[in-house]
Design a protein that fits this description.
41% of the residues lie in helices and 16% in strands. By secondary structure, the protein is an alpha/beta fold. Strands 4-6-7-8-9-10 form a six-stranded parallel beta sheet. The protein is globular, with a radius of gyration of 17 Å.
Length: 240
Amino acid sequence: MFSFLQSKKSITDSGLLRGAVDNHSHILPGVDDGVRSMDESLAILSYLEEIGLSTLWLTPHTMEDVPNTTEGLKARFQKLKDAYHGPIRLNLASEYMMDPNFASHLAAKDLLTHEGNRVLVETSTWCPPIDFWDLIDSMMVSGYTPILAHPERYRYMKESDYARLRSLGVLFQLNLPSLSGQYGSEVAAKAFSFLDKGWYCMAGSDCHRLHAMQEVYRKNVLGKSAIQKLEPILQGGCQI
């Protein structure tokens, strides 16, 4: 038993986050259900410095219930950049719910994107939007590459759906807390399966609170194989 435990490491102890890129977080303060205050944002950034993170993407929600605007998020992002003077590279995008609000943003090409015109999108955990496949197609036609946030969490998706998405060029982003069982054993099993298959292009913390992030990074233990497969994803991801 001792040798078995010694073969596993927490995310922080593994060194996976040194020089890493976090592609999905809710650390921009006061704009969604994530971090509330600038002080909390700065505390999280200080912690991320300690564990060696290189680049952080701020991806606040944009949806009908959280109607953030591009200009509003840019203004809030500038305030965070003015307040933060550390070494982590900060970038702004958004996590878009694929709802009628998103369709309007897409039609206007009013989207905050990751590098390479990549757009982080999500759906309900339990069911897709009626026009899901049409929206994917519209994104591609408009010159955007969809990044599907935490695909392991979608209960309604079948293996054939994931295969179809991959064949269309949709990228998959892993939520690191999924590996710890934070969303249940079924989600964890799916996340490890996708990791084994090499389906993930990038990863993110999906951080909403400092304490929750610390718990996941300190207590989630991974085997050698998982650590080896995660390393290239966290160090920049695929080049698709």
